[in-house]
Each structure stands twice: as structure tokens, then as C-alpha cells.
Amino acid sequence: YTWDANEEYLFKAMVAFAMRKYSRKSTTQISNVLLCNVTDRVSFWFVVTDSSKNVTTVPGSEVEAAIRMNRNRINSAFLLSEKTLQFLKITSTLSPPVEPSTPVWLIVFGVVLCLIVAAIVFLIVAGIQQRKKKNKESTERENLEEKGEVTVTVENGSPCEALDLKAGHVNGVFAADDERFTSL
């Protein structure tokens, strides 16, 4: 960045502009802004004088307030930012970090709650469908039994004889065990 007489003139003009906007008077001229100790690294200090009063320099608090009020215009004139154009003793006017309107924990809580509700709804719907399927199979079996149709069930690849569910079926293996108990 080359700092020459034109850049100095622009800086003086921006400071004079800031002073005029702050004080709402047109007494500050470019000649009232004095640059001192200008170095090659573009480091200097400046003083603003007031020729309309008997005071030779404008108080530092007024200059700070004027620069703080018009800092964005000064930065824009030099195509710089708060990090590249630094005024000592004047706090930067960086905008505060953006905070979301809703806290992060509330968003996470909402997502987890939605997942839990979706899982519960899925389990309820799956249970209802399974119950309907089971009821449909049992009614079909009862209808076949009422009609007298005998069905052959196949378990593990081998056919099993159908049980007569109305009359019942006695398993001979357990017949001997029934005699041990006395009936009431």
C-alpha cells in the first residue's frame, strides 16, 4: 500500500468530514488536520485544530467521538477494515458475534424429541398392522374349520396331520401322568 501525498490528503479530508458531521459546523477544514511523525509503515499521529476558537486543538474526546461515529466511512474510503485501519485509544466498532434467535440446545432437544415421537408412532402403527394380520389369519382358519375343510400344515418341510380342534386330541405320552392326580 503506497502512502503518498494524495493518501494523506484523503485521510485529512475524511477526518475533517467526520469532525463536521460530529459538530454539525462547517468550521473544520482540511488544513485544520495536522499529521505528525509519518513513517514508512503508515504510522502517524494527528491533531485537529480549531481556528474559530481561541483553542488551538480540539479536545481528544471530541475527535475520538467523531471518528467512532464515522469510522465505517473512513474505512470505506481507504478500502480497509477494522482489523487493517487501527486508531489507538479508540475502541473498535466491530459488530458483536451473531447469536441465533433460538438457543442451540433447544434445537437439539427438538430434533431428539421429534425422533422419539416418530419412533413411538412407528411402533404403534406396526403393532396395529401386526394385530390385524394375526386376526385375519385366525378368522381364516376358523372359517376353514367351520366349513369342514381339512388343511395340512407343513412344519420343517414335513406334512403334519390336522388336529380336530372341536373334538380335541389326546396325546398318549401324557395319558399316564393324568392318573397320578386325583380328580376333585
From TrEMBL:
GO biological process: positive regulation of amino acid transport
Origin superkingdom: Eukaryota
Pfam families noted in UniProt: Collectrin
InterPro entries xrefs: Collectrin (IPR042944), Collectrin_dom (IPR031588)
Residue intervals of the Collectrin-like domain: 1-184
GO cellular component, one term: extracellular exosome
Signal sequence coordinates: none
Membrane topology: Single-pass type I membrane protein
Keywords: Cell membrane, Glycoprotein, Membrane, Phosphoprotein, Signal, Transmembrane, Transmembrane helix
Keyword Translocase: no
Transmembrane segments: 104-128
Compartment(s) of residence: Cell membrane
Phosphoprotein listed as a keyword: yes
Protein name per its UniProtKB record: TMM27 protein
Gene name in the database record: Tmem27
